[in-house]
Write a structure and sequence with these properties.
The complex is a heterodimer of chains A (304) and B (545).
Chain A: H1 2-9, H2 19-25, H3 37-51, H4 76-89, H5 91-94, H6 120-129, H7 144-157, H8 170-179, E1 187-188, E2 191-192, H9 202-205, H10 208-216, E3 228-233, E4 238-246, E5 250-255, E6 260-264, E7 268-274, H11 286-297
Antiparallel strand pairs in A: 1-2, 3-4, 3-7, 4-5, 5-6
Chain B: E1 23-24, E2 30-31, H1 37-41, E3 62-63, E4 77-83, E5 95-97, E6 100-105, E7 109-114, E8 120-125, E9 144-146, E10 149-153, E11 158-163, E12 169-174, E13 189-191, E14 194-197, E15 209-214, E16 220-225, E17 255-257, E18 262-266, E19 288-293, E20 299-304, E21 320-326, E22 329-337, E23 342-347, E24 353-358, E25 365-368, E26 374-376, E27 387-389, E28 403-405, E29 410-417, E30 420-424, E31 438-441, E32 450-457, E33 463-469, E34 478-480, E35 484-488, E36 493-498, E37 504-509, E38 519-523, E39 526-533, E40 536-541
Classes of the chains: A alpha+beta (304), B mainly beta (545).
């Protein structure tokens, strides 16, 4: 965590020599008025149109591209202050670790991708204004500094690992991945099977230590989506597959032939759950293991 | 005049639950099987599925399922509902493929559910960047399918391919730059192994186009602009450089005729919407229908409904293809109830105008000439003081699908009889900004006016019956072989009408406005009727013993 915040502080997003000026210049004069460039310009655009007397029928974003404001609060202290904000305002929906999940019902914030923002300024706006039509409310009473610190903290949640600093080699790891035919079950960038998690962005979701454990101890923590379910029907026939969904009355699986199947539980004689990974244990040398971890850590999606 | 039932014997397959190409589990439940191009061409042969946005390539939105009929519709009951997580206008028409339903959600997501129970298999959420410019909500209307891959438009003007079994992203193609005001909301159309798709953003002075993408890779195969550049035919219909920001977006799904190998697609209004002085000329191919070569996307013919449109009357309606008998001769025609209040019957091989009649209140044209060109009345252009003209900018109808029943020969259309005041203003194009050139409002509250579902006789353009709606509707229409016409109203009712008389036979108050078009499918031998209203997808069927 410290390493990550250190890297943030030395990144282009960190305070520059002009930082003190920028702290005023980024619109801190009016509370909530930052980020700013874009929404203010958008309002300006609307105002211009209205001055011309146009009756706007349309709604939605009418922004104009403008300089994105930079986050002036990116130090280690800002990370800790952001964490404090997060714990008091965000965890009830996004979970204590920011991974969201079914129980909390807020989206996972640790993947490095956000559904409604792609920049720090965008995150600022989402935190300030909320997302209309969802239960994400804006922190309208928070000051600019608090919101930027939250942005800074959120940035530390995604795995921003310098793959080059890892012991393994990405290229050699790719070769191991191919030799072991991992693509038989795992999809990467639209190629591969469906009987394991899509790994296209696994490097943003899981840190190198977690990836290493996923390889050596695949059964340590198997997500319910990847449990194996064995159903015995009233006629005694058995169908087995991966658990895509289960509720009080119904069960949905992907069977061995990657077919989608749905069963009414009441029609079944029995349902057995195997909370283990279906990933085969492959003997790997330490070097191969490190290479594979490096390769997986490098998978961040095609646009990264 | 006798309507031609161009699917003839297909009606009788209506109760067949499993087409030969498909697989079924031991318990008889269907299993998701690859949707080949042949299956899409012959989708009428598997009426238990709804394989594309319009139900079939011809765009009729007519289901050959007849289990629910005029005699039993009063027993209809709710089977299940799907709640959409993010609230916005819910414009989806779900697909159903072999017992799996694919529902698109705001802003650019899709969920696969079991069509029998409504319970989810998977969900794909498309991440969106900052600064998306949308005129009219974070909507998505549906997906297309080919093989085992779904194709979806996203609000940031991308086209994505998603694995139908797992929800994994297969490829992601940028169609246009969302920062310039381009966006995408409509379901794509599969033609052969090409994914054909349009673009939205007319309010931002974009230059419209229709694209074809390689279904396997996402590589673009062709692009046909709906606004020609200098040197191309039609550019002379744009004064000066006005073609550069000419609009004519293509924000609804087109249709395809496999025999003629022609794609038909509607083009939106020119930009800026209400100031025609900034773009003198007819402004081809705005407010027009284009017939494109199915392989190259080249324009084969065009027909412009509203030349030099200054009222925002997009030709963003579904081109409905039907073979009808005219003067004793079977003709391949296109049926089009336009936003400008005229119904058109065109020869779809040549684009020849066959007939046109108003189907809703209009005060802008004396009528249409022999080529289908409007004969304008005096003083109908927008002015700084405002000009009152019917229909309103929202149109006598809009993008909500009509339905054509080969049983009756009627085109069932959602209509609105109202007038609007149109204002012209100066405007300057600024990249990524709204570019309207004026404004529009209704002089009176909507309750002063009247909507209706109207049955237009395809071969004459005469309105044979109407079902009045107070005050209005924003729903498409579905016709089913049980003799029923389905639609919904803004006051929250979903209802079924008699196809021959318009008599209401069943209704339910669902408590929120529709922004979508109903569809029908069957699972386990049971017909279902689906409508998206409010932020919910509702599924109805008959009681099962």
């Amino acid at each position: 965590m410290t390493g990550q915040s250190a890297s943030l502080a030395s990144s282009p997003l960190g305070p520059s020599p002009q930082a003190p000026d920028r702290r005023h210049g980024v619109g801190l004069t009016s509370r909530g008025g930052v980020a700013a460039g874009r929404s203010l310009t958008a309002i300006g655009a609307v105002a211009r149109v209205v001055r011309r007397g146009v009756l706007l029928l349309v709604t939605g974003a009418v922004g104009v591209a403008a300089e994105e404001p930079e986050n002036p609060y990116t130090s280690g202290i800002d990370v800790r202050m952001g964490l404090r904000q997060f714990q008091s305002k965000c965890t009830s929906c996004h979970g204590v670790d920011g991974t969201g999940g079914e129980e909390a019902d807020g989206p996972d914030l640790t993947t490095g991708r956000f559904q409604h923002a792609s920049t720090e300024a965008g995150l600022y706006e989402v935190i300030r204004d909320g997302i209309e039509g969802t239960s994400m409310r804006g922190l309208r009473r928070a000051g600019d500094q608090e919101i930027w610190q939250l942005v800074t903290y959120l940035r530390t949640l995604s795995r921003d690992v310098d793959v080059a600093s890892l012991p393994g080699s990405v290229e050699a790891g790719r070769a191991v991945f191919e030799r072991l035919d991992c693509g038989r079950c795992h999809m990467v960038e639209g190629r591969g099977g469906r009987r394991g998690p899509d790994l296209s962005r696994v490097g943003g979701r899981r840190g190198p230590d977690e990836l290493a454990e996923d390889l050596t101890e695949p059964n340590a923590e198997v997500a319910p989506r990847w449990w194996t379910v064995r159903v015995t029907r009233a006629d005694g026939t058995v169908v087995e597959g991966l658990r895509m969904g289960e509720d009080t009355f119904n069960l949905r699986i992907m069977d061995d032939e990657e077919r989608l199947r749905s069963f009414a539980k009441a029609s079944l004689r029995s349902v057995e759950r195997e909370q283990k990974s279906t990933m085969p244990a492959e003997p790997l040398s330490d070097a191969e293991h490190d290479d594979l971890v490096a390769y997986l850590a490098s998978l961040r999606g095609s646009d990264s | 005049m006798r309507p031609i039932d161009w699917i003839g014997a297909a009606l009788f397959l209506a109760t067949a639950q499993t087409a030969p190409a498909q697989e079924a589990a031991a318990d008889g439940m269907p299993l998701l099987s690859p949707v080949t191009w042949e299956r899409l061409v012959n989708s009428d042969d598997e009426p238990h599925n709804w394989l594309m946005y319009h139900g079939a390539l011809h765009g009729q939105r007519f289901s050959r399922l007849d289990q629910i009929d005029r005699g039993n519709v009063e027993r209809l009951e709710l089977k299940w509902a799907h709640q959409i997580r993010q609230l916005d206008r819910n414009q989806t028409t779900p697909l159903v493929v072999d017992g799996v339903m694919f529902i698109t959600e705001s802003p650019s997501n899709v969920t696969a559910v079991d069509a029998a129970t409504g319970r989810a298999y998977w969900r794909y959420e498309h991440p969106l960047p900052d600064g998306i410019r949308l005129c009219c909500g974070r909507n998505n209307r549906g997906v297309a399918i080919l093989g085992e891959t779904l194709y979806m438009s996203t609000n940031d003007a991308h086209l994505v391919a998603i694995d139908a079994r797992s929800g994994s992203l297969l490829w992601d193609a940028e169609v246009a730059d969302h920062m310039k005001g381009y966006s995408k909301t409509a379901a794509p159309l599969v033609v052969g192994d090409t994914v054909v798709t349009g673009i939205a953003g007319g309010e931002f002075g974009i230059r419209g186009f229709i694209d074809g993408y390689d279904a396997a890779t996402g590589e673009r195969r062709w692009r046909t602009y709906t606004v020609p550049e200098p040197g191309e035919p039609g550019n002379e219909t744009w004064a000066g450089d006005s073609w550069r920001t000419g609009g004519a977006p293509t924000w609804l799904t087109g249709v395809y005729d496999a025999e003629l190998d022609l794609i038909y697609w509607g083009g939106g209004n020119p930009a800026p919407d209400w100031n025609g002085d900034l773009r003198l000329g007819d402004n081809l191919y705005s407010s027009s229908v284009l017939a494109l070569d199915g392989k190259t996307g080249e324009i084969v013919w065009h027909f412009q409904f509203t030349p030099h449109d200054v009222w925002d009357w997009d030709a963003i309606q579904v081109p409905v293809l039907a073979d009808v008998e005219l003067n004793g001769e079977l003709r391949k025609t296109m049926l089009w109830a336009n936003r400008n209040a005229f119904y058109y019957l065109l020869d779809r091989e040549s684009g020849q105008f066959l007939l046109g009649e108003p189907f809703a209140l209009q005060t802008w044209a004396h009528g249409l000439d022999e080529n289908g060109r409007p004969i304008l009345r005096e003083n109908v252009f927008p002015t700084t003081e405002g000009t009152t003209v019917a229909p309103i900018a929202g149109g006598a109808t809009n993008w909500w699908s009509p339905a054509y029943s080969p049983r009756t020969g009627f085109l069932y259309v959602n209509t609105f009889d109202a007038e609007g005041i149109y204002y012209q203003r100066d405007d300057e194009y600024e990249e990524g900004s709204i570019f309207l050139g004026g404004g529009h409002r209704m002089p009176l509250a909507a309750d002063h006016y009247q909507s209706a579902i109207r049955a237009i006789e395809a071969t004459t353009g005469k309105v044979r019956w109407e079902f009045p709606i107070t005050p209005r509707t924003r729903s498409g229409v579905l016709a089913t072989a049980g003799g029923l016409v389905w639609s919904a109203s803004v006051d929250g009712y979903f209802f079924a009408l008699d196809e021959e008389t318009g008599e209401p036979l069943w209704r339910i108050s669902l408590g929120a406005a529709p922004h979508a078009s109903p569809m029908s499918y069957a699972v386990g031998g049971q017909q279902r009727i689906v409508v998206a209203m409010g932020n919910v997808v509702f599924v109805f069927g008959l009681p099962e013993k």
